[in-house]
Design a protein that fits this description.
Helices cover 31% and strands 29% of the residues. It is of the alpha+beta class. The chain has one domain: Glutaredoxin (3-Layer(aba) Sandwich).
Length: 156
Amino acid sequence: MLDVGDRIPDLPLQLASGAAGHLGGYAGRWLVLYFYPKDSTPGCTTEGRDFDALLPEFERAGAVVLGVSRDSLKSHQNFRAKQGFRFDLASDADGAICEAFGVVQPKKLYGREYLGIVRSTFLVDPSGVVRRKWQPVKVPGHAQAVLAALREERAR
């Protein structure tokens, strides 16, 4: 499980944009890496829209926004196209990224226990070190809080 002060691993990424990449490819830029449970669900849609609405401000602050879930690449492509997201989504179908960041945890729904993604966000500096971590995340106001934290970190 990664925490503030830890360096992120250089894991491969399958991106909805069709590009292949890896986490290390974001070196030199701030990275807002947010994990969400499932494409096209109400909370995940709202969270994505909130990040997308603030995307120009994140970009002006020198940051890239990247959403991650265990949904398939096709699901991500459909979700991204339907919502008009201007940032990319990474498919973590094998769960390697989610496991490395410690976002897969026991959850309960209607009395049933299962392992699932706990909504989480990591703010990573240009050298690949986690500067802020939010877990679990409540969607309302979250994207704005991340943007404010990014501005604070850049001002240091």
